[in-house]
Amino acid sequence: MPDFQRKPPLVGSKTSGVTSTPTPYLRSPDLAATRSEIDVERRFLLLDNRIVSTTRNVDLTIGSVEKHYANPLLVEDQPWERRFDNFYGNIIFDVDEEVYKCWYSPFIVANSAKGMSLQERLNQPYKGHKDQEMGICYAVSKDGIYWEKPNLGLVDYHGSKRNNIVWRGPHGAGVLKDDAGPEIENKYKTIFQGLNTSLSPDGMNWSSPRKIESDSAGDTHNNAIWVPALGKYVAFTRTWTKSDRAIIGSESKTNHRWMRQVARLESSEFVNWSPVEVVIEGSSWELQPYAISVFECAGVYLGLIAIHDQVSDRVWTELAWSADTTSWERIDQGKPLIGCSETKLDYDYGCVYACVSPVFLDNEIRIYYGGSDWLHFGWRKGCLALAILRADGFAGYQQLRPGEPGMISTSLIPYQGEALKVTADVELGGSIEIKVIDSKKSVLAERKLNETATDKIMFEDGQIKSAEIRLEFTIRSAKIFSFVLKRTQKKDFVSSTASRDGSLE
Fold first, then answer.
1. 36 against 176, higher pLDDT
2. Cα→Cα distances 433→392, 430, 442, Å
3. What is the per-residue pLDDT across 377-420, written as a single tens digit (0 to 9) for each?
4. Is the pLDDT score of 24 beyond 50?
5. Domains of the chain listed by start with CATH number
6. Which one, of 112, 72, 122, lies nearest residue 375 by Cα?
7. Which helix (H) or strand (E) holds 495?
8. What are the φ and ψ backbone dihedral angles of 21, each rounded to 5 degrees?
9. Is 412:469 a contact under the CB 8 Å cutoff?
10. Element containing residue 101 per DSSP (H, E)
């Protein structure tokens, strides 16, 4: 089968993996269950169409990223980093150790593009190498911008263990630090080509691979997450199918019928797995899903999909979302969230592969990705790069026709008098009018936002009295991403109103 100008912020208090209910609009917070907390927050991304009732003159569009001025952050500069290829990075901010950690997968034995001019690359098509060998390497950073490759002393490479190689052999490894699943002893888990899994207490020392009974080769960036609503691990890999595309002449890497597909499998204990099921297909033979990085955010699951253009042989990253990790919807399909540079031999001209997973800071989202300076099937140098997204800025609603205001109305939401906060980009002279409406269609309150804001308080805690509310946003020269319902609980109030059995009266 063919395989075919901003300063970095300080490390924030938020980390990758925002915890919330899978369907945050369906119920109010359980105060009895959260009695030990001060703040109870429900965050709603408007890309989730379950919370949107009606719209007029608006369109859901992809967010806008800014590529970091320090890119590329990590390059092929060690003898064992022969070719980063797709990089297949896995990045977390470890709150316990207060450090960024990155596991990535270079070819440690392979041909390289180092030193090749553009003309040399054009005249020497990349054919691979029969003695290629992949591995897992490790890097760390205090700020997520400046990275170090520590000497781990774990793996021999040409007679020395002075390197940052964690494991020789695995291809397409996704690394998960599991803080929520049932397996406590081995917090670190990986799934890689084969399909195979392995466990580790520290992310450095891994158990012998365990083979998954599957027909999938898993020749992609495999990755897994814990899904609390299912009580299961869910992994994502890749399968292939044949299209009805006609080919003329001999079959090759660029002349074939094969089509890539994103597939899903699940397990209760990271040992026994369900059969793979296809969950995302390409829109055409020309535009195929190469890999996907999946993570939870504000009650939904987001997927960063690497799209391989079979014609140009370039790869960029698009966005999809799911309520359950099985049914996926593409957002602004055909428009990259992270696109390729248009300058030949720039660090991400050829390919952009999103890492697993973004890091959430207070005022921004960091999406790390593997970039390469030339085509997917070409001689290329790779790197680690960073794209910055505004808080909650994956996708938002904006006007279709500028001269006419846009409108978004939500479904009815259970409500307990929480404060209402809004995140939006507002152009000069633009605005967002916000109305709070009860179940009888009475307007309880209204206010206007005239500036770009992140979690801007529009109505205070306790200001509005209603058991259910509907929100109506009228947009003029603005783009709205999310809103938050947040209630501040006083501990003495919670304890004083609790009955003997622990329920609230």
1. 176
2. 19, 10, 16
3. 999 999 999 999 999 999 999 999 988 999 999 999 999 999 99
4. no
5. 39-62+395-496 (2.60.120.260), 65-390 (2.115.10.20)
6. 122
7. helix 491-496
8. -75, 145
9. yes
10. strand 99-104
Burial of 345 (0-12, 13-18, 19+ CB in 10 A): middle
CB 157 within 8 A of CB 108: yes
Q: What is the pLDDT of residues 50-89, one digit of tens each?
A: 999 999 999 999 999 999 999 999 999 999 999 999 999 9
- Sign of the dihedral defined by the CA atoms of residues 434, 437, 443, 444, in that order: negative
Type of residue numbered 173: A
DSSP assignment of 311-364, as one string?
TTTEEEEEEEEESSSSSEEEESTTS-SBPPPSSTTSTTSSEEEE-B--EE-SSE
Partners of 425 in beta bridges? 479
CA 311 – CA 253 distance, rounded (Å): 11
Mean pLDDT of 470-499: 75
CA distances from 453 to 84, 127, 383, 425 (A): 39, 50, 33, 7
pLDDT beyond 90 at 220? yes
pLDDT at residue 492, rounded to an integer: 44
Mean pLDDT value across residues 188-203: 96
Tokens representing residue 33 in the block: 């269950």
Q: In this predicted model, which residue has the larger pLDDT, 248 or 467?
A: 467
Tokens of 236: 């994502």
CA 86 – CA 107 distance, rounded (Å) = 10
